[in-house]
Write the structure tokens for this entry.
Amino acid sequence: MTLQELQKLVLEQAKEKDWGTKPDEIIFGEKLALLHGEISEALAAYRKGKMTGDESVTEELGDVIMRTLQLAGIYSIDLEKQILKKLEKNKGRDWSKDQLYIDRDKRNK
Ligand SMILES: [Mg+2]
């Protein structure tokens, strides 16, 4: 299943549940806050050591993707195209680690 196919399913459910499928049916900032809430839920699950099952990191990361697909779909954003573009852009970047600080010793300073 492609990202676009998943997005279609997410939007179909959003329509059924009246969660919004068009810009004039939502408040953008509210949807972003809800997306952020899912990320926070993933962090909370991780802190409890819950990687799978109900209210786990796995479930919450799925929620993040679903909310992202819904929001992108509402604004006709092609996430597949954007991800491919970003993958290409990242090739030109010169840092090698995905962390806030390259030097781990600087984390606590
Ligand atoms: Mg959740």
User: Anything to note?
Assistant: The mean pLDDT is 92. Residues 3-106 form a domain with the Helix Hairpins fold (CATH 1.10.287.1080). The CA atoms of residues 53 and 59 lie 7 Å apart.
